[in-house]
Amino acid sequence: MEERKDGKQHIFLIGFMGSGKSTVGELLAERLSLPFIDSDREIEKSEGKSIDEIFSREGEKAFRDMELNFLVELKGLKPSVVSLGGGLPAINGALELMHQFGLVIYLNTSLLTLIQRLKNEKDLRPLLKDLSDAEFHPFVEDLLSQRVHFYKQAKLIMPNERNSPIELVDKLTKELNKLNY
Ligand SMILES: Nc1ncnc2c1ncn2[C@@H]1O[C@H](COP(=O)(O)OP(=O)(O)OP(=O)(O)O)[C@@H](O)[C@H]1O
Ligand SMILES: O=C(O)C1=C[C@@H](O)[C@@H](O)[C@H](O)C1
Ligand SMILES: [Mg+2]
């Protein structure tokens, strides 16, 4: 298994839907000259279906099994920046695997900012797409509160809120240097 200076293999970005993992992950990978991998996109590619189709045809449990499988298989790959699906850290055993072979970073975005971002894109996300306007805020609030204690087990917690994605990449590279990554 190839490792970087700190003995860790990958950089994992975790956080709620809409926290910016895919956007920031791609930019961070470019900055560090590492490959970029997005769990949602990889699962779509290997299944030949959209996340939405997987949820509707095979169910959420099948999708969670695919996510865990994706994580296990990362062990054989060269060091990469990996953006993980919003629900992945809540799967039993997933955080342990992430800490084993990666540096885990939580992109922390407030409920109100998440709601603003997700309202414009909710059709892309199977858990959100059928919610009415009245249901949207309480659903996101409840799911975030169930997930936040998993996210907070990250090694680094970085707000992604009042900054551009590029500004966050600047901050992240400074933090990674401090950790000798
Ligand atoms: N710092 C930021 N400032 C403003 N908008 C942002 C910022 N970071 C991300 N966004 C925007 O938020 C939206 C969601 O970002 P993105 O798709 O990267 O989130 P995600 O964490 O990958 O979500 P999911 O878990 O559903 O895949 C996108 O429209 C993106 O452009
Ligand atoms: O938070 C979640 O459970 C999800 C987040 C997305 O990244 C996708 O993995 C999918 O829409 C489920
Ligand atoms: Mg994403």
Automatic annotation (TrEMBL):
Substrate binds at D40, R64, G86, R147. Pathway: Metabolic intermediate biosynthesis; chorismate biosynthesis; chorismate from D-erythrose 4-phosphate and phosphoenolpyruvate: step 5/7. GO terms for molecular function: ATP binding; magnesium ion binding; shikimate kinase activity. Keywords: Amino-acid biosynthesis, Aromatic amino acid biosynthesis, ATP-binding, Cytoplasm, Kinase, Magnesium, Metal-binding, Nucleotide-binding, Transferase. One of its GO terms (biological process) is amino acid biosynthetic process. CDD domains: SK. Mg(2+) binds at S22. Its EC number is 2.7.1.71. GO terms for cellular component: cytosol. Pfam families: SKI (PF01202). It catalyses: shikimate + ATP = 3-phosphoshikimate + ADP + H(+). Catalyzes the specific phosphorylation of the 3-hydroxyl group of shikimic acid using ATP as a cosubstrate. This is Shikimate kinase.
